Amino acid sequence: MKLTKLAASALAVASIILSAGVASAQTAVTNGTNGNYIGAGVAVGATSGGQGNDEAQIGGNIQGRYAVPNAPVSLRGSVLYGGDAAAIMPIVTYDAPIAKNTNVYFGGGYSFVTDEGQKTPLGNQNSPVVTLGIESEVSKNVIAYGDTKWGIDAYRNSDADAVSFQAGLGYRF
I need a labelling partner for 72 at 20 to 30 A (CA). Which of 17, 53, 62, 99 fits? Predict the structure, then answer.
């Protein structure tokens, strides 16, 4: 059932992103951002596993992006902290330019919880992660970003999924 939900969600988001890319290609050439950056901000967990000691958490995030040269793909790293542990995520994304210096991105990876069973903004156990976000260079070497992360089966002793929202500012290098 979870695999069906994941596949349906991935197809829906991918079709939206690809449709936006086709539409923008027909009207004008847009150049998103291809900068590498590291940033920090807030992380807000929006879900609970329903088992006690796994309620939604507010914390922080540290995120980074390495844009693969000559490809619409990026390697990203994210750390969500708050509660009693941290969730560390390597993620690969497809990046689609939507305006000058602005991209939307969609991808997946895996969340490694530093102390399984302890709460983070994205659940309390290791899990696959899907992300959807936007990033924009708002001034020279400053990137603003925001995304949503969906942890699939991210709570111990529960089949609940976790959702977290992140926003922050990064330094482009």
Answer: 62
Alpha-carbon gap, residue 73 to 168, rounded angstroms: 21
Distance CA(147)–CA(132), nearest Å, equals 6
pTM passes above 0.85: no
Distances in Å between the Cα of 53 and the Cα atoms of 57, 101, 117, 120, 151 are 10, 41, 9, 10, 17
Bridge-based pairing of strands 142-151 and 37-45 is unpaired
| Whether residue 19 has pLDDT greater than 70 | no
- How far is 164 from 173, CA to CA, in rounded Å? 27
Exposure of 63 by Cβ count < 10 A (0-12 exposed, 13-18 middle, 19+ buried)?
buried
Closest CA to 102 of 129, 137, 56: 137
